[in-house]
Design brief:
By secondary structure, the chain is mainly alpha-helical. The protein has one domain. The protein has 17 helices and two strands. Strands 1-2 form a two-stranded antiparallel sheet. The two termini are 32 Å apart.
Length: 412
């Protein structure tokens, strides 16, 4: 028996953490991309430098801060994953363009961890600040008001991305309903354009961009264009228009992302480079590079796609939502309680590393014993045979050890 067969017979440790997609095909590297994105964001929010330090240290601090751009990868993934079942129904000619239980799946994935984070974080804010306004802000989050109206960003600034995500979840079905009678091949271009054009026009006409401080305000629809390329790639994938060689563009996307942080850090520490035109170009380069990462779907057997499917990276991606919700308040509280590093490497590492580990453990526990049971409760039928379906998908994509060209291979 081979190593792979032995592993399949006894199960992989990650299976205990994994929920098979309810409506999508499963691409393991997607979890790995989530892992990269969350680690980038954690780097941005945990690492900091003395503002009075020299230019070299300031550049390192600016470099770490660019990790916040990892949210662009999250947005691209959402555009791809959320629209994929819509495209599947559109191209198959299904009578209903909206996947069954779509709204409830989004609710049970997003709301319970969000509500739990609000419930757990509010007492901490009250103890540390004595500011009763946090109760009012918490009530707004629990009732969903921030998804429609601006709210103070002091509770948890990272929640600005949730506002944009939920708005996307609501607008996407409307786009498919409006174009229900339009042919799928034409819709493949019209729907991404619907998410691209109006946000650009709105920003040009008003000059408004999404803000996270002092208020979280999405200035709807100013930010919905972040999903357009992910939507396009999902449609091309369902249509079987992606050639296997396109996976090399995923490698290009990784290379671009490797160069973007130093470039952005240089722009932020050199005023002469920090122009609006360069910043706009850099933002679009992020979007394009993130969409390129999705093109590994054209060939999941690509060595880099397999590397992105490593268990530890996928695990980070699997708990990324819970980690995202809790990490920033924890590091901010740690700084407030213990103060800065004061030039001590040991103190700095303890402060940053301790907050990092605490948020990781908390996220893992909440995901495993709170979020995961809810997700499995909502998908009982699909979970029963998840391993068989995963193996079937691997055979279809040519990833299984017994794969033979021409037997189960999808022509792309």
């Amino acid at each position: 028996m081979t190593t792979s067969q032995t592993e399949n017979s006894r199960g992989h440790w990650l299976d205990a953490w994994h929920v098979a997609p309810a409506a999508n095909r499963e691409y393991e590297f997607i979890d790995g991309l989530r892992g990269i994105a969350i680690l980038m964001v954690l780097c941005a929010h945990h690492l900091y430098v003395n503002p009075k330090s020299g230019p070299g240290v300031q550049f390192v601090g600016a470099l770490a801060a660019t990790g916040g751009r990892g949210v662009q990868i999250f947005f691209a993934l959402s555009g791809f994953l959320i629209s994929w079942p819509f495209w599947k129904r559109k191209f198959s000619g299904a009578s209903s363009v909206i996947p069954p239980q779509y709204g409830w799946r989004r609710f049970w994935k997003i709301y319970p961890p969000l509500a739990l984070s609000v419930i757990l974080l509010t007492p901490g804010y009250l103890l540390l600040t004595g500011d009763s306004s946090y109760i009012y802000i918490a009530a707004k989050w629990l009732t969903g008001i921030p998804f429609l109206l601006p709210v103070s960003g002091k509770f948890n600034p990272v929640m600005w991305t949730l506002v944009i995500e939920v708005q996307f979840y609501m607008i996407l079905p409307l786009a498919f309903l409006v174009l229900k009678r339009v042919p799928a091949r034409m819709s493949l271009w019209l729907i991404p354009l619907l998410f691209l054009g109006p946000p650009i026009v709105y920003r040009e006409m008003t000059g408004n961009y999404a803000t996270l401080s002092p208020n979280i305000d999405s200035y709807f629809p100013s930010t919905l264009d972040v999903f357009c390329l992910g939507i396009l790639v999902a449609g091309l994938d369902v249509q079987r228009s992606l050639k296997e060689s396109w996976a090399h563009l995923g490698t290009v996307g990784l290379i671009v992302w490797a160069f973007l942080p130093p470039l952005l850090a240089w722009m932020n520490t050199h005023a002469s480079w920090n122009s609006d035109s360069l910043l706009l170009a850099e933002r679009w380069l992020e979007k394009i590079a993130s969409a390129c990462l999705l093109l590994f779907v054209a060939n999941p057997r690509n060595p880099i796609a397999k590397a992105l499917s490593s268990a530890w990276l996928r695990w980070c991606g699997i708990i990324s939502y819970e980690w995202y919700l809790f990490h920033q308040p924890i590091i901010l509280w740690a700084r407030q309680l213990f103060g800065p590093g004061n030039g001590s490497v040991v103190r700095y590492v303890g402060l940053v590393g301790g907050a990092f580990l605490l948020s990781a453990v908390l996220a893992a526990v909440i995901y495993r014993y709170f979020s995961l049971p809810i997700l499995r409760w909502r998908r009982p039928v699909r979970e029963v045979d998840s391993r068989k379906r995963t193996e079937a998908a691997k055979i279809e994509d040519g990833q299984h050890e017994n794969f033979q060209p021409g037997k189960g291979e999808i022509g792309r």
